[in-house]
Amino acid sequence: MEINKADFCNTELFADVLKNTPFSPPLLHLPYCEDTDVLAREKNIKGKTAHNRICYQPMEGQDADENGNPTDLTFERYERLAKGGAGILWFEAVSVLPEGRSNAHQLMINENNLDKYKKLVESVKEKSLKENGYAPIFVLQLNHSGRYSKPCGVPSPIVGMRNSFFDKPDLCYTLASDEYLKRLPEVFAENAYLCEKAGFDGVDIKCCHGYLYSELLSAYDREGVYGTSFENRTRLLCDTFRACKSALSNDTVLACRLNIYDGYNTPYSFGTDSNDYTKYDLDEPKKLIEILVSLGLDLLNVTMGSPYVNPDVSRPYKAGIDMPKTNALSALSRLFEGACEIHKAFPKLPVVNTGVSGLCAKAHLAAAGMINDDMTDFVGFGRMNFAYPDLAKDILSNKFDAKQACVACSGCSTLKKNGLLSGCIIRNKLYRDIYKEFTSK
Ligand SMILES: Cc1cc2nc3c(=O)[nH]c(=O)nc-3n(C[C@H](O)[C@H](O)[C@H](O)COP(=O)(O)O)c2cc1C
Questions:
Q1: pLDDT score of 410
Q2: What are 44-86's pLDDT values in tens digits?
Q3: Run of H or E including 57
Q4: Is the overall model pTM greater than 0.85, yes or no?
Q5: Domains plus CATH for the chain?
Q6: Model confidence at 7, in pLDDT bands (50, 70, 90)?
Q7: Virtual CA dihedral for 373, 375, 378, 380, nearest 10 degrees?
Q8: Which atom of ligand 1 is nearest to the CA of 208?
Q9: What is the 3-state secondary structure of 148-214?
Q10: Residues lining ligand 1, judged by CB closer than 6 Å?
C-alpha cells in the first residue's frame, strides 16, 4: 500500500512539504504498512542471527579523546543504543589513520587501545542481552576521510583527485599519491583485524559520502592506476576487500557502506549515466557490487549523496530548512527505490537501506512497508537512533512513541559540522545545551 496524499497531509512534516511540492505519484513510491510485526522477522547474516530488520546506522558522536580512545560518553551512547534492541548496530566511522580523521575527536583503534574497544564491545553486548535477551550484530565502520579530513579541527584535505567543482581557493590540497593509496589496503586490513580481535561481528569498508574511497569511484580525471577506467577507479576498494578478507577469519562479516549514486550534478559523480552525469544510472554500482560479492562482501549498506555537497540527497530533511536542490519526498523515494533495485539485483546479499529518519513520526510505518514489500532486508535508522535510542524495542512491542521521534531538523549534523559533540538537540539535554551555547555565540 502506498501512503496517499491524505496520509501525508496528516503529519506536520508532510503538510509542510506538500505546500511547496507538486505531488507526483509516478515519481513517488513511499511504502507503508501498519503491521510493524514484519520488522520482527529474524535474518541470518553469515551464520549470525539478526533478531529483527532494524539497523541502527553509523552516526559519529565526536566524543573520542584526542588519541581516538572511546570515552565515558562513547560508552554511554553505545550502551543506550545497544539496549534499544536493533538487529544490527553499526558503529560509526573509525579512522584508519590519524591524518584521515574527520575531526579531532574521531575514534581510532590500534594495538595500544585494543583493550578499550574490547571493553566497549563486552559492555554493549552485556547491556543488550540483559535488556532484550539478544545482542545486535555489531559492525564497525572503517574510514579515511580524504577530502574531508580535519584531524586537528581544521580542514587538511587529502584528495583522490583535484576537482574544480569542489576545491576551495583558500585550502591547501594534498593529492593522495599512488604510493599512498597502495599502502591503504594493508592499513585497512590491520584495522579490520583489530576490530575482529575487539569482538566486533563485522567490519565495514566505508565507500560513501564523498570520503576518499568514495571520491575515487568517480576519479575520471585522475592519472595512473587509480583513475579514469572503471577498473582503476574501483581498484582501491577491491584491493582493500582482498586484504581485509585475508586478514579476517571466516566468521567475520565483511561489509561495505556504498554510495550507489552521488548526485553531485558535476562530471565527477558515481552512479550516473556515462554520457549524461545528470542522469541516475546504477549500471556501474551494480557491476562493482557483483565484484565485491565475488571478493567476499557479506552485507551491503546502500546510501547516496554527501553531507558536505548535497545533504538533501543523502539525508532528506524537513522541507523549508535549506532544501534548495530537490525536495525531501522525491529524495527519500530515490534512496528507498535505489536500495530496492540493488536488493532485487542481489537477492542473496543482505542489504540495509538509508534515509528513513526523514519520515519522522511515520518512519516506523514506512519501515514496515519496506520489509512487507520486500524492498530491502534491513531498514537503516540514522538520526532517529540519536533521537530515540529505544526505537527498535518500542516498535517491536507496538509502543512507538511519536513524541520521541526524530524531527529531521538535522541539528545533530550542525553539531558534527562544527566539530562539537553530536547527538539529538531536540530529545537529549546534553546536546541541546551544546547547540544552544553554540548558536548563542
Ligand atoms: C551527526 C551525523 C553523523 C553521521 N555519522 C556517520 C558515520 O559515522 N558513518 C556513516 O556512514 N554515516 C554517517 N552519517 C549518515 C547517517 O548514517 C545516515 O546515512 C543519514 O543520517 C541519513 O539517514 P537518516 O535519515 O536515517 O538519518 C551521519 C549523519 C549525521 C547526521
A1: 85
A2: 999 999 999 999 999 999 999 999 999 999 999 999 999 999 9
A3: none
A4: yes
A5: 31-407 (3.20.20.70), 410-441 (no CATH)
A6: very low
A7: -110
A8: 11
A9: HCCCCCCCCCEECCCCCCCCCCCCCCEECCHHHHHHHHHHHHHHHHHHHHHCCCEEEEEECCCCHHH
A10: 57-60, 92-93, 141, 206, 208, 257, 303, 315, 354-358, 381-384, 412-413, 416, 422
- Between the alpha carbon of residue 203 and those of residues 85, 190, 297, 380, the distances in Å are 20, 12, 10, 17
- Please determine, for residue 323, whether its predicted confidence score (pLDDT) is greater than 50: no
Confidence at 231, pLDDT banded by 50, 70, 90:
very high
In this predicted structure, what is the pLDDT of residue 327? 67
Cell readout for 141 is 565502520
C-alpha cell at 22: 507538486
**Structure-block grid coordinates of residue 130:** 540483559
Looking at ligand 1, which residue's alpha carbon is closest to its atom 11? 58
Could you report the per-residue pLDDT of 160-181, keeping only the tens digit for each?
999 999 999 999 999 999 999 9
Give, for ligand 1, the residue of 30, 57, 150, 318 to mutate: max count of ligand atoms closer than 8 Å to Cβ: 57
